[in-house]
Write a sequence for this structure.
């Protein structure tokens, strides 16, 4: 009987997390969670899984600590370099030229699921390298993991995070701290604003409206299909005309949305919002 009750409790935990955050707890995640919870039960910190479910759904601190535990923050500077190269050398100049013709000189970017900020600062470096000074830049970077956001705000990283940064960029855009870490310089940090945001909280998407680029790479792979589709649809709505959505190399909007136009550059697919003007 206890096994049935535990299975029911696990299902309730999975459903609550999926509905609240979009994150789908697969078998590997569930095993990881159970190891942690069983340890707490053995230590007398929890009575059982029902007790945890009650705490999870009624205590915001317990919920946030659990989400921080669940989220995957495997990231580093200049991840998926070839995609970023196509962005910097092909797509970015095209969008800037298009906006100039419309009398606009502002680029707005949303990095969704930014983790510890490596990707957001990478994009800031790229913009600093490739944009002319008269272009105004706004980069919003959001995540649901509060601990990851704390690291992002400091802009201080271990060697493993910057292992693929070209030595020239390391010298120009980073300072080495006394304990041998790498701190992003202020000229790159000041373009990035970090925000706590749950991707399925659609009431907050107005913050990111009129974005020219949305980077949501290797984030939605952890979501359920229904939640993934809703996020993709909302991202389409807030993109500017001619704006681009960037996903991870193994991701696609194919079966989730037919609204985006698709463009291939080398081995990467890029998704953009077509304009009435034919852009």
């Amino acid at each position: 009987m206890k096994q049935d009750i535990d299975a029911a409790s696990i299902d309730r935990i999975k459903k609550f997390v999926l509905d609240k955050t979009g994150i789908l707890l697969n078998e590997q995640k569930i095993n990881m969670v159970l190891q942690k919870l069983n340890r707490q039960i053995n230590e007398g910190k929890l009575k059982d899984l029902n007790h945890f479910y009650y705490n999870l759904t009624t205590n915001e601190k317990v919920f946030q600590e659990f989400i921080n535990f669940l989220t995957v923050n495997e990231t580093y500077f200049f991840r998926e370099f070839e995609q970023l190269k196509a962005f910097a050398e092909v797509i970015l100049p095209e969008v800037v030229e298009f906006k100039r013709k419309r009398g606009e000189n502002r680029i707005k970017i949303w990095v969704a699921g930014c983790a510890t900020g490596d990707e957001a600062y990478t994009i800031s470096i790229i913009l600093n390298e490739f944009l002319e000074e008269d272009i105004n830049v706004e980069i919003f970077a959001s995540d649901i993991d509060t601990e990851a956001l704390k690291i992002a705000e400091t802009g201080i990283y271990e060697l493993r995070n910057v292992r693929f940064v070209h030595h020239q960029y390391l010298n120009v855009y980073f300072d080495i701290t006394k304990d041998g870490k790498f701190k992003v310089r202020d000229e790159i940090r000041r373009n990035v604003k970090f925000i706590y945001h749950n991707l399925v909280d659609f009431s907050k998407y107005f913050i990111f409206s009129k974005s020219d680029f949305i980077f949501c790479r290797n984030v939605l792979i952890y979501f359920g299909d229904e939640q993934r589709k809703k996020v993709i649809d909302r991202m389409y709505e807030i993109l500017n005309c001619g704006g681009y959505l960037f996903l991870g190399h193994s991701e696609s909007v194919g079966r989730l949305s037919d609204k985006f136009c698709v463009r291939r550059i080398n081995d990467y697919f890029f998704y953009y919002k077509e304009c009435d003007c034919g852009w």
